[in-house]
Input
Amino acid sequence: MRKTKTLLVAHGSSDVSWGNTFQKMTESTREKYPDVSLAFMELSSPSIEDEIITGKAEGYQHFRVLPLFLAKGKHLKKDIPAMLLSYETSHEISTELLEPIGEHPLLAEAIRLIIEETAE
Amino acid sequence: MRKTKTLLVAHGSSDVSWGNTFQKMTESTREKYPDVSLAFMELSSPSIEDEIITGKAEGYQHFRVLPLFLAKGKHLKKDIPAMLLSYETSHEISTELLEPIGEHPLLAEAIRLIIEETAE
Output
């Protein structure tokens, strides 16, 4: 069976505290699932390619990308698919781009619960 | 008691489907809580100011902003606070900027559940 790694991919920012929020947001998932890592599209480390290189060295051949984005704009429609296509060739791996978290019903539910909690 | 409106504020995009994702993501919350609306910082409609004008006409004096952002970058540290300050003066209302949804433990939990669900 091919070994699959899941990359939680966030946008990235030159602001360090921005990246820390994603480290914290994904901590419980990464602790529970050792096959899951956090990576950034740009500006923050590690990059998607960094994680593919590391993962490949650990024996992973397939990389699933779960975008930590709320909606699909240019980055998810063009930039990330193009990056993944290029890495498939250059690193001889396969990739799969999942729907961004914002499209999942759990996000709608989380927002409703946050509002419920803060309701006066 | 002052009447409070909560604005769920997303970034906005020239891509219409991007805005639709946020309409859908916030639908159950807006249906359950009539005092909650969706607004966009830029590019999409309605804008934050549109919703403040509408809300004020309906008798709301206080506007709480829940950012539909995953982390705090320049927009939440500078742009949105500056916009809110300016609207407080120009529309004679009060505002309150909440933490972005990405800082809430429910987001970390949603990501964990999404991974759990998609685990092979």
Remarks:
- DSSP finds four helices and four strands in chain A.
- Chain A touches chain B through 47 residues (CB under 8 Å).
- The longest strand of chain A covers residues 4-10.
